[in-house]
C-alpha cells in the first residue's frame, strides 16, 4: 500500500468514527455545550429578560452584584461547610462499614441490602423522616431531642433553631444519602482484592493494621479517589437535600446552597433574574472545576508515589 | 530442620447440608529430611496444595500433627512458623517496587528482631543477588517478565531465612523454555541455601528432574515417597506407574497361566512366579525390543521420528489406552511389514499389578 493510500484509509476511518459519535455529540452540543456557552454570555448581559430577550448592557456588574449579595455569600458558606464535612466523613464511614461488611460471613447479603436501601429511597421521603426525627414542635420535641434530654441536655430545634443545629442536620442527611453508593463501590472494590495478597501478608507476618494500610488501602485507592472526586462534585451541587428538610424558602432559613441560589434567582419573584443566576452558575462551575483539577493532580501524584 | 507429618488429615465441610464433606488430605504420615528438595506430586485436585497450606499454617488440619524438627507447630500461626511460601501466581504486591516487596516481610519483624532500614535493604539485596534480580530493585512487578516475577517471589520468601521453603506450582505460569531454566535455578538456590524445600506440582517431569525425593499422592491419600528414579522403576501401584513417565506406561489386560504371562494369545514372558489369573501388565515405552519374530503382535499405525529415538505407535486389542507407544532407538528401527509389528519385552521394564486392588505384584 502506498503512503497516500494509508492516509486515505486513515481519513476514512476517522470519518466513520465521527459518524458513529455524531448522535451522541449532537445531543451533547445541543443540551450541554450550547447552554453552557449561553449561560456564560447571559452572565455578562445586564438585566437580561428571557421573555423579551432584551438586556441593558454588557459588563461584569452581574458578578459584582452576586458576589456582594449576602444570600449568595451565605449559600457559598453553606455549600463549603457541606463539602468539607460530608465528603471525608461519608467516605471514611463508608470504608469502615464496607470493611465490616467484607469481614462477616453470615447475613452479609442482608446487611448489604439494608445499607443500600437509602439509595433507592426518595429524597423527599427521607427528608420527611428526618423532619419527624429532628423537628421540635409545641406538641413534641422529636425523637432525637428525647434522646438528647435522656442524656441530661436541653432540647434543640434542629429545623428552625440555631444555624449550627440546622447545618448539623443537613450534614447528617447528606452523609446518610450518599453513603449507600459509596458502600456499594467500596465493598466491591474490597472484594476484588485478590485474597492471595492477604495470605502472602499473613505468612510475611504483617499485622492487621499494616495489611490494611500497606495492601488494602493502596489497592482500592483508585476507587477511593473516584468517590472523593464525585463526592466533591455532588456536594457542591447539593440542593434537593436542603429543600427536603427546610422547605423551598431556603434563603429565609439561611440554609441555601449555591445551586439553590441559582434556582431561586431563575424562578423566584416571578420571572426572576436570569443574569444573576447565570453569573452564580458560572462561579459555581469555576469552583467545581478548580477543585476537581486539584483532586486529579493530587490523586495522580499519590498513585505515582505509591 | 526436618518436617514430620503425623496422621495429618484435612476435611472440608460440604457447602450445603445435603452435600458430602471432602477429605482433601487423608491420614498423611511422612518425614521430609533436612535440607532436601521434595516434590509433592499428584493430579489436579488431589489435595497437594491443601497439604502445602497446612504445612505453612494458612489452613488448619482437621486432625494430626505437624513437626518442624522436634517442635510441634500444628497450632502455631503461620507468621511464627518461619516458613516462606512462593505462591502459584507469585502474589507480589503490585503497588510496591521489587525492593519494597522483598523488604516487606522484614518490616514486620518486632522487638529484638527489628532491623534498621539499612539492614533491611542489605538483606533484600543479598536475597535479590541470590536469585539474580539485584539489577531490577526499583521496578514494579507489572514491569517484569513472568520469570523475573518468579525470582522476586522466591527472594521475598527467602529474605527472612525461613526454616522451610514452600512452593506452590512454581513453574506453572512460565513458558516451556523459561520453565527449564527456572527449574535449574530453583535447584541451584535450594543447594546454595540448604533450606528444606517442598514444592507442589502436577508435572511429573518437573518433579522428577529436580527433586531429591518425590511424594506421590492421589485423592488425598499418600501413595509413595522415594527418590524419583526409584519411584519410576519400582512403583507401588498402577496409579503411580501410570502417573510417572512420558510417554505413559502401556497397560495391557494380561493373564498368567502356568507361570507364563499372556497378552491375548501371545506368550510374552515366562518364569512369572505368580498364581494364575488375570493381571494388569504395564510395559514402559522403552521396554519394547523390535523383533520380526517377537512374541507380542501389534497392528502398526504409525512411526513418529523424534531424532535420537523413534516412537512406534501400534494397537493391540488388549491395550487399555488408545494405542501402544514404544520408544526404539533410531538405529534399531527395522520394520518388516507395513501393517504389523512384533516386539519382545524387557523383563525389567514390565510391571504386574493386581486386577482388583491395582497393587504391585512382584514376580521374581
Name the descriptors.
heterodimer; A: 306 residues; mainly alpha; MetI-like fold; 13 helices; B: 364 residues; alpha+beta; Rossmann fold; six-stranded mixed sheet; 24% helix
Strand order of the largest sheet of chain A: 1-2
- What is the 3D form of chain A? flat
What is the number of helical segments of chain B per DSSP (H or I, 4+ residues)?
9
In whole angstroms, the N-to-C terminal distance of chain B is 39 Å
CATH architecture of chain A: Orthogonal Bundle
Unreliable sequence segments of chain A:
none
Annotation, overall tally of beta strands of chain B: 21
How many domains of chain A, as an integer?
1
Biggest sheet of chain B: strands side by side, in what order? Answer: 6-7-8-3-9-10
> Could you spell the SSE succession of chain A in H and E letters?
HEEHHHHHHHHHHHH
Give your account of this protein's structure.
The complex is a heterodimer of chains A (306) and B (364). With 306 residues, chain A is an all-alpha fold. Chain A has one domain (82-305): MetI-like fold (Orthogonal Bundle). Chain A contains 13 helices and two strands, in the order H-E-E-H-H-H-H-H-H-H-H-H-H-H-H. Chain A has helices at residues 3-42, 61-68, 70-103, 108-120, 123-134, 143-150, 163-191, 195-203, 208-236, 240-246, 250-253, 258-267, 274-305; strands at 45-46, 57-58. In chain A, strands 1-2 form a two-stranded antiparallel sheet. In chain A, helix 2 (61-68) packs across helix 13 and helix 9 (208-236) packs antiparallel against helix 13 (274-305). Chain A is flat and about 75 Å long. The mean pLDDT of chain A is 86. By secondary structure, chain B is an alpha+beta fold. Chain B has two domains: 3-236, P-loop containing nucleotide triphosphate hydrolases (Rossmann fold, 3-Layer(aba) Sandwich), CATH 3.40.50.300; 250-361, no CATH class. Chain B has a six-stranded mixed sheet, with helices on both faces. In chain B, helix 3 (98-107) crosses helix 4 (117-130), helix 3 (98-107) packs parallel to helix 5 (146-158) and helix 4 crosses helix 5 (146-158). The longest helix of chain B has 18 residues, at 176-193. The radius of gyration of chain B is 25 Å and the shape is elongated. The two termini of chain B are 39 Å apart. The relative contact order of chain B is 0.12. The chains are: A mainly alpha (306), B alpha+beta (364). The interface between A and B is medium-sized, with 18 and 22 residues.
Amino acid at each position: 500500500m502506498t503512503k497516500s493510500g494509508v492516509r486515505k484509509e486513515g481519513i476514512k476511518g476517522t470519518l466513520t468514527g465521527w459518524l458513529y459519535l455524531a448522535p451522541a455529540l449532537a445531543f451533547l452540543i445541543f443540551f450541554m455545550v450550547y447552554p453552557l456557552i449561553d449561560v456564560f454570555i447571559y452572565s455578562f448581559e445586564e438585566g437580561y429578560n428571557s421573555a423579551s430577550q432584551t438586556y441593558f448592557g454588557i459588563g461584569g456588574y452581574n458578578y459584582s452584584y452576586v458576589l456582594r449579595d449576602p444570600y449568595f455569600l451565605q449559600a457559598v458558606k453553606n455549600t463549603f461547610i457541606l463539602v468539607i464535612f460530608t465528603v471525608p466523613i461519608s467516605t471514611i464511614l463508608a470504608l469502615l462499614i464496607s470493611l465490616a461488611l467484607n469481614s462477616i460471613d453470615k447475613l452479609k447479603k442482608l446487611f448489604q441490602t439494608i445499607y443500600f436501601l437509602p439509595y433507592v429511597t426518595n429524597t423527599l421521603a427521607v427528608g420527611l423522616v428526618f423532619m419527624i426525627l429532628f423537628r421540635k414542635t409545641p406538641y413534641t420535641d422529636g425523637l432525637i431531642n428525647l434522646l438528647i434530654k435522656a442524656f441530661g441536655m436541653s432540647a434543640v430545634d434542629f429545623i428552625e433553631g440555631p444555624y449550627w443545629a440546622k447545618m448539623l442536620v443537613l450534614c447528617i442527611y447528606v452523609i446518610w444519602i450518599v453513603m449507600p453508593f459509596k458502600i456499594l463501590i467500596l465493598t466491591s472494590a474490597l472484594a476484588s482484592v485478590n485474597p492471595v495478597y492477604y495470605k502472602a501478608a499473613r505468612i510475611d507476618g504483617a499485622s492487621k493494621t499494616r495489611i490494611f494500610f500497606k495492601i488494602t488501602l493502596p489497592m482500592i485507592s483508585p476507587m477511593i479517589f473516584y468517590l472523593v472526586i464525585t463526592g466533591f462534585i455532588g456536594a457542591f451541587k447539593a440542593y434537593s437535600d436542603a429543600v427536603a428538610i427546610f422547605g423551598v424558602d431556603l434563603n429565609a432559613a439561611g440554609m441555601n446552597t449555591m445551586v439553590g441560589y441559582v434556582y431561586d434567582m431563575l424562578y423566584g419573584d416571578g420571572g426572576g433574574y436570569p443574569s444573576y443566576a447565570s453569573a452564580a452558575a458560572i462561579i459555581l462551575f469555576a469552583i467545581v472545576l478548580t477543585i476537581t483539577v486539584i483532586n486529579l493532580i493530587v490523586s495522580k501524584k499519590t498513585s505515582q508515589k505509591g | 530442620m526436618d518436617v514430620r507429618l503425623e496422621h495429618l488429615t484435612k476435611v472440608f465441610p460440604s457447602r450445603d447440608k445435603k452435600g458430602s464433606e471432602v477429605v482433601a488430605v487423608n491420614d498423611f504420615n511422612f518425614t521430609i529430611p533436612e535440607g532436601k528438595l521434595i516434590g509433592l506430586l499428584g493430579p489436579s485436585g488431589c489435595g497437594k496444595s491443601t497439604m502445602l497450606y497446612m504445612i505453612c499454617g494458612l489452613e488448619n488440619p482437621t486432625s494430626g500433627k505437624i513437626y518442624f524438627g522436634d517442635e510441634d507447630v500444628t497450632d502455631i500461626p503461620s507468621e511464627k512458623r518461619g516458613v516462606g511460601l512462593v505462591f502459584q501466581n507469585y502474589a507480589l504486591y503490585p503497588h510496591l517496587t521489587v525492593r519494597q516487596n522483598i523488604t516487606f516481610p522484614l518490616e514486620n519483624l518486632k522487638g529484638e528482631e527489628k532491623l534498621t532500614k539499612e539492614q533491611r535493604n542489605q538483606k533484600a539485596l543479598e536475597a535479590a543477588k541470590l536469585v539474580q534480580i539485584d539489577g531490577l530493585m526499583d521496578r514494579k512487578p507489572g514491569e517484569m517478565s513472568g520469570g523475573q516475577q518468579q525470582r522476586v517471589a522466591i527472594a521475598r520468601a527467602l529474605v527472612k531465612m525461613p526454616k522451610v521453603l514452600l512452593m506452590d506450582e512454581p513453574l506453572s505460569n512460565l513458558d516451556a523454555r523459561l520453565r527449564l531454566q527456572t527449574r535449574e535455578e530453583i535447584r541451584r538456590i535450594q543447594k546454595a541455601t540448604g533450606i528444606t524445600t517442598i514444592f507442589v506440582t502436577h508435572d511429573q517431569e518437573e518433579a522428577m528432574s529436580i527433586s531429591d525425593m518425590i511424594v506421590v499422592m492421589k485423592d488425598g491419600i499418600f501413595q509413595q515417597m522415594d527418590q524419583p528414579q526409584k519411584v519410576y522403576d519400582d512403583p507401588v501401584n498402577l496409579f503411580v506407574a501410570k502417573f510417572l513417565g512420558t510417554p505413559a506406561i502401556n497397560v495391557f489386560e494380561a493373564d498368567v497361566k502356568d507361570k507364563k504371562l499372556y497378552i491375548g494369545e501371545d506368550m510374552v514372558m515366562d518364569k512369572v512366579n505368580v498364581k494364575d489369573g488375570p493381571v494388569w501388565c504395564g510395559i514402559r515405552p522403552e521396554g519394547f525390543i523390535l523383533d520380526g519374530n517377537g512374541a507380542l503382535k501389534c497392528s502398526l499405525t504409525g512411526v513418529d521420528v523424534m531424532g535420537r529415538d523413534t516412537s512406534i505407535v501400534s494397537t493391540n486389542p488388549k491395550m487399555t489406552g488408545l494405542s501402544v507407544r514404544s520408544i526404539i532407538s533410531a538405529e534399531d528401527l527395522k520394520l518388516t511389514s507395513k501393517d504389523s509389528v512384533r516386539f519382545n519385552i524387557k523383563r525389567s521394564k514390565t510391571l504386574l499389578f493386581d486386577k482388583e486392588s491395582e497393587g504391585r505384584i512382584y514376580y521374581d
